[in-house]
Write a structure and sequence with these properties.
Blueprint (H helix, E strand, L loop, with lengths): L3 E6 L9 H7 L4 E7 L1 H4 L6 H21 L4 E4 L2 H12 L1 E7 L5 H16 L4 E4 L14 H9 L42 H13 L5 H4 L3 H7 L4 H5 L5 H13 L4 H26 L23 H10 L5 H13 L4 H14 L4 H11 L5 H12 L12 H8 L4 H6 L8 H4 L7 H7 L14 H16 L4 H12 L5 H9 L20
Parallel strand pairs: 1-2, 1-4, 2-3, 4-5
């Protein structure tokens, strides 16, 4: 047996529409490899719920590849060390993978792998997975290239893989074996390609009928949104097959409202890659404010910031709709885009928390965490891009508009079950006599609001606009727009993003403060 072709699976856990796998199979025997990297799973944006989804997807992928002749091989360790052992044992004729726009840790890891491959004269074939372009000089023509890539034929899985005799497939570790922090998430979506295909079918055949009308309210979004975002983030489905499936379904419909709903979904699939492209083109936006004059805007260690962050993260701010959204996210690993944007907005403006602090907490909670979408959206919703209209969500109005009967609040905040509907969105307005009559006390059964949300929002707005009027702000913002803005409709598109172009995804994604693929 000659040198092996190594197919390195990353966030592309599927056998179909996987060009690296198909192309490598045409060169002879191949080693389908996934490396569990303990250091990655200890990063502050990783979590056990994400690993469990990934693990389920790996188990299903291993079975699917086994049916082709060679199961997925899993090793635990540092990627370049695992590859070096394979090189010494078998020889490596080529390394194949999809391109990845991940977090800063995976970016540094890929640089190390590239150096290892050059050292040993091994060609690393990196094939695009999304509509994202490497080494992009400017955005002109980006949408056309995205359309061309999405129109490419769906790559079939190889018909057969030559089995590698005597090679132990390796165990896939548990969350406990990876020493991950316990992360209960009873409503989490399950991983694996069959789960993703079933969701895609149910969405296109039935659930998408109410997509446009149901995506904003958390009462309806869990059913009306596609819920495909974790499958796109972890690659159990390819973006291309979702785009083509959606367009084929839309062509077969006669109902105008249904066709319009699928067209809106199609737009979000495009925006998915638009946001990831920002991180691909400027990896520093995961850590640094896109507009430099917004750096240091919020003090990380300001008075009471730790307490405000802890209350917001636990769903104990005293703002019922905000707390209900956070607790739903904790329990399910998913939330619709508008509510994700509201959580970031409240954290950034009313609570004046740095976007990195709130963003890391949300990243861990999102099963569909997609770094490109997540960090672009965190900055956009917190006002640090310099090119998006400042939008400060009114958490009371959001609750009244999207949960008028309080169904969502009562489901996720059982401590408010006794509160009359008239006070449900603002329980602090309830007088003492009514509280006594109900046997319920604000501050004991449910917290007082940790801030005066209206005055805090006004102060934040004043500080942001004062910053934007500083000399040089507009010129820098124009340069940012030129580099990262959509070319479909210029700055107007950028402003639309600020009002909630809904993983992923924030996160894949994909409703990741991610697009409302979720």
């Amino acid at each position: 047996m000659g040198p092996l072709q190594v197919v390195w699976f990353k966030r592309d856990l599927r056998p179909a529409d996987h060009l690296p796998l198909l192309e490598a199979s045409r060169h002879g025997a191949l080693l389908p490899l996934y490396v569990v990297e303990p250091e990655y799973w200890q990063q502050p944006d990783s979590s056990a719920r994400q690993w469990l989804f990934c693990r389920e997807s790996l188990l299903e992928l291993r079975a699917a590849l086994a049916r082709l002749g060679q199961p997925l091989v899993v090793r635990v360790g540092v990627v370049e060390q695992v590859l070096e052992r394979a090189r010494r044992q078998f020889g490596i004729g080529g390394l194949w993978s999809h391109q990845e726009t991940g977090n800063g840790w995976t970016y540094a890891r890929d640089l190390r792998v590239a150096a290892w491959a050059r050292q040993h004269a091994i060609e690393w074939h990196e094939i695009p997975q999304f509509g994202v372009s490497r080494r992009l000089a400017q955005r002109q023509g980006w949408s056309r290239r995205w359309e061309e890539r999405m129109a490419e034929p769906i790559a079939l899985a190889p018909q057969r893989l030559e089995p590698l005799a005597g090679l132990d497939p390796g165990a896939i570790p548990s969350a406990e074996e990876l020493a991950l922090v316990p992360d209960p998430c009873p409503g989490r979506q399950l991983g694996g390609r069959p789960q993703g295909l079933a969701l895609l079918e149910s969405f296109l055949d039935r659930r998408s009928r109410t997509y446009q009308s149901g995506l904003s309210s958390p009462n309806t979004a869990f059913a009306s949104c596609s819920r495909l975002s974790p499958h796109l983030s972890w690659g159990t489905l390819s973006l291309r097959e979702v785009v083509q499936g959606n367009r084929q379904r839309r062509q077969g419909l006669t109902a105008v409202s249904w066709r319009r709903a699928l067209q809106r979904f199609d737009e979000r699939l495009h925006w998915h890659c638009h946001f990831i492209q920002k991180l691909e083109s400027q990896p520093s936006l995961e850590f640094q404010e896109l507009h430099p004059l917004t750096a240091g805007l919020r003090e990380r260690d300001g008075p009471g910031s730790d307490e405000r962050l802890a209350a917001w993260a636990a769903g104990r701010t005293g703002l019922p709709f905000v707390d209900a959204c956070m607790r739903a996210l904790i329990a399910t690993g998913w939330l619709n885009f508008r509510m994700r944007a509201m959580l970031v907005s409240v954290a950034s403006y009313q609570l004046w928390l740095p976007w990195r602090d709130s963003g890391l907490h949300l990243a861990r909670l999102f099963v569909d965490y997609e770094p490109g979408i997540h960090w672009s959206q965190c900055q956009m919703q917190s006002g640090t891009t310099g090119i998006n209209t400042i939008r400060i969500y009114n958490p009371i109005k959001q609750g009244v508009d999207h949960d008028p009967d309080g169904l969502f609040i009562r489901r996720w905040l059982p401590e408010l079950a006794a509160v009359p509907a008239v006070f449900l969105h603002q329980p602090w307005l309830m007088d003492g006599a009514t509280q006594e009559q109900l046997g319920w006390a604000l501050g004991a059964d449910y917290p007082q609001p940790i801030v005066d949300w209206a005055s805090a929002a006004a102060a934040a707005r004043e500080r942001l606009w004062a910053l934007r009027h500083q000399q040089g702000f507009a010129a820098t913002a124009a340069a940012i727009q030129q580099r990262h803005g959509s070319r479909r409709s210029g700055l107007r598109a950028s402003r639309r993003q600020s009002v909630g172009m809904s993983s992923g995804g924030l996160s894949s994604g994909m409703e990741q403060l991610g697009l409302d693929l979720g």
